[in-house]
Structures are given as structure tokens and as C-alpha cells.
Amino acid sequence: MAIEGGDERIKRISTSIRVIPNFPKPGIKFQDITTLLLDPQAFKDTIDLFVERYKNQNISVVAGVEARGFIFGPPIALAIGAKFVPLRKPKKLPGEVISEEYTLEYGTDRMEMHVGAVHAGERAIVIDDLIATGGTLCAAIKLLERVGAKVVECACVIELPELKGRERLEGKPLFILVEA
Fold first, then answer.
1. Mean of pLDDT values over 65-75
2. Contact status, residue 177 vs residue 5, Cβ threshold 8 Å
């Protein structure tokens, strides 16, 4: 689901995202959110739209995917009264972790979360800047569900619909602000 209609905030967010052709390799149109972060109103609009969506849904966990989920997740968590849980690349979290391996176009990677950060029965959302093929979000969902959390929805600023990442989420709701 994306926000429909003429919401000026969506237009501001969309126009603040810079597209860089042929980065990091030929044929890729990189969606650069750093320009969104340079526009305080567009950044605020982004956070506000997510907060409006989740503030009355009894969310207790905002799980942010490394690294850009760390930008959007904490302010959303604070605004809705939830904890922020970082989902990190291997060997970045001290202490005991659980991990989930996932497939990339060029190999595999792993995502980790602290043991005890999330408990059975907690209601969670997963935040990232962008969904492409969906592999990262699928790994995040599996990690949270393994400890008994209920993943209510995934939320991204940007969706690349031609890469069909939404289909890999196996029916898990996805909320996005803009399509690229």
C-alpha cells in the first residue's frame, strides 16, 4: 500500500530523492535518500507519515534494517512509544545474537539481532529505506518471527516495483511512500 492522492508531503519527499544513474554499476538507477535528509521538511514529512500510520496500532518494536533503517526507525519509535531494535550485518553487535541468512543477487548475507531484544507476542514493524528484491525484509521478518514477535507490517520510503520484492514477502503487508 502507498499513500494515494495529492498529499503535498509525498510530492516533497519524492522530489527530494536524487536518482543517480549507473551507480553502483551500469544499468542501476540508485535512489539516493541523502538529499531527502538534507531537506528538513521532507525528512520530517517522511517521519510524520510513518508515525501517523503506526501511532495507534500498539506497536512495541520498530526494527530497523542496517543501515538506512537506522535513520528512519529511531524517530518513529520515539514518537509512537516503541523500542528501536537494530537488525545488523554480521559481527556488528556485541553479545549473544541470533541470525538469519538470506540470498542476494550475487551471493548470501546474514542479519543479526540481540538475543532478548524482542519477546514473544510483541507487535513489530520493520523499517528500511527501500524495497528492491525483498531479500533483506524477508530475513528481518523471519528473524523477528523466530522469537515469537508478530510482524504487523514492513515500511519503506521507496519501492522499486519492477524488482517484485513485495511478492517475496508472502502476503506480509508493505507500506511505502513513493514508487521509483
1. 97
2. no
